[in-house]
């Protein structure tokens, strides 16, 4: 598909979804002027012979990292490549494609967006441009969120934080849905799609590469204190129990290095330390600012969680959100 034709079709399914301010530059005669510079190359980390991911070094988006701060991944099957999450921009998506082509000559046949935060889907644009027949999957709730404001919100968020480093990116909707429970056979590879309830968002998808014994957890688990405002503490605790039950050897995360099952244990402990204590102290009549130092004094929080990026600045917000959720679940 020619670029201009693509732009028309992209507008076809995203018109009304984001403001024309984002789309308009793409119609300009000298359209390259309106694309931010390309993303620098990041070498993929190999998990198994068929499973890779792009480890982002930085915990936050910035102008110098072009808003690259999460870990897109991919699985090479005998029937083509399946990409899990696409990064924060068309530029990042293009970089992923460049790097994938260095490892395999197979085309990308499917893309899966684990949830609606912009670092996980804004790169879709590059994939539909390079592979017009690619199928892009997400949960229906994720698609609804992108349509009803999250697309615009996350486009603006990444633009602001990268100093307009994602200019030219068009919010590109997933075209197919997974509800969780699906099994895909792609030649030599079996992928299982899991949805274990509200965790990091209301409908996170977890992708299991069965033969390789790897699960992509999206942002349901991380060793980082970032954003739980769209999620649930008890939901994350439940999701970690189920992720552990998958029994896979390795877990790839949306942020930070991949790991064995200890990541599930740590994320569960982190949420339990905050949520269970918030419930207890709420019952005792404490306010959130009174609970915060007590929760921070818990051995797990002192020894492990306090080393996580974002801890100092964000832990208070986590406690406040836990109190709101605890209160809502009590009555
Ligand atoms: Zn997220």
Topology:
Elements: H1 3-14, H2 20-23, E1 45-46, E2 51-53, E3 73-77, E4 80-84, H3 90-103, E5 108-112, H4 124-130, E6 135-138, H5 140-161, E7 176-177, E8 183-186, E9 189-194, E10 206-209, E11 214-216, H6 233-245, E12 250-252, H7 262-283, H8 288-296, H9 299-303, H10 311-330
Parallel strand pairs: 4-5, 5-6, 6-7, 11-12
Antiparallel strand pairs: 1-2, 2-3, 3-4, 8-9, 9-10, 10-11
Q: Could you please describe the fold and organization of this structure?
A:
With 331 residues, the protein is α/β, with parallel strands linked by helices. The chain folds into 2 domains: 258 residues, Ribonuclease Z/Hydroxyacylglutathione hydrolase-like (Metallo-beta-lactamase, Chain A, 4-Layer Sandwich), CATH 3.60.15.10; 70 residues. The chain is 39% helix and 14% strand. The chain has 10 helices and 12 strands. It has a 7-stranded mixed β-sheet. A 5-stranded mixed β-sheet has the order 8-9-10-11-12, with no helix packed on it. A hairpin with a 4-residue loop joins β1 and β2. α3 crosses α4 and α6 runs antiparallel to α7. The protein is globular. Bound molecules: zinc ion. Zinc ion (ZN) binds next to loops.
Strand/helix succession? HHEEEEHEHEHEEEEEHEHHHH
How large is the share of residues in beta strands? 5-15%
Supply the number of structural domains. 2
Structural class designation: alpha/beta
CATH architecture of the largest domain: 4-Layer Sandwich
Number of strands: 12
Query: What percentage of residues falls in helices of 4 or more residues?
Result: 25-40%
The biggest beta sheet is recorded as: 7 strands, mixed
CATH H-level homologous superfamily name of the largest domain: Ribonuclease Z/Hydroxyacylglutathione hydrolase-like
Q: How large is the radius of gyration?
A: 20 Å
């Amino acid at each position: 598909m020619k670029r201009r034709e693509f732009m028309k079709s992209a507008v076809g399914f995203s018109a009304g979804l984001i403001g024309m301010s984002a789309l308009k530059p793409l119609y300009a005669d000298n359209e390259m002027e309106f694309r931010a510079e390309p993303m620098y190359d990041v070498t993929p980390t190999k998990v198994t012979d068929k499973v890779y991911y792009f480890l982002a070094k930085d915990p936050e988006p910035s102008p110098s990292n072009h808003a690259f701060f999460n870990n897109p991944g991919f699985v090479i099957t005998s029937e083509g490549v399946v990409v899990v999450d696409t990064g924060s921009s068309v530029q990042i998506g293009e970089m992923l494609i460049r790097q994938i082509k260095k490892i395999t000559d197979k085309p990308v046949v499917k893309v899966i967006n684990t949830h609606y935060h912009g670092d996980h889907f804004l790169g879709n644009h590059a994939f539909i441009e390079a592979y017009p027949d690619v199928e892009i999957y997400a949960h229906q709730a994720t698609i609804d969120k992108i349509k009803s404001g999250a697309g615009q919100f996350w486009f603006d968020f990444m633009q602001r934080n990268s100093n307009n480093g994602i200019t030219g990116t068009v919010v590109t909707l997933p075209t197919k849905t997974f509800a969780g429970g699906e099994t895909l056979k792609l030649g030599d590879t079996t992928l299982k799609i899991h949805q274990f309830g509200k965790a990091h968002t209301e409908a996170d998808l977890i992708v299991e590469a069965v033969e390789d014994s790897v699960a992509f957890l999206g942002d349901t688990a991380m060793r980082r204190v970032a954003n739980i405002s769209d999620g649930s503490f008890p939901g994350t605790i439940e999701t970690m129990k189920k992720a552990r039950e998958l029994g896979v050897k390795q877990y790839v995360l949306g942020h930070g290095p991949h790991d064995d099952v200890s990541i599930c244990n740590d994320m569960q402990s982190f949420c339990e330390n905050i949520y269970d204590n918030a419930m207890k102290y709420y019952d005792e009549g404490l306010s959130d600012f009174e609970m915060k130092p007590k929760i921070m004094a818990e051995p797990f929080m002192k020894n492990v969680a306090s080393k996580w990026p974002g801890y100092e600045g964000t832990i208070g917000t986590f406690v406040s959100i836990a109190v709101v959720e605890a209160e809502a679940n009590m009555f």
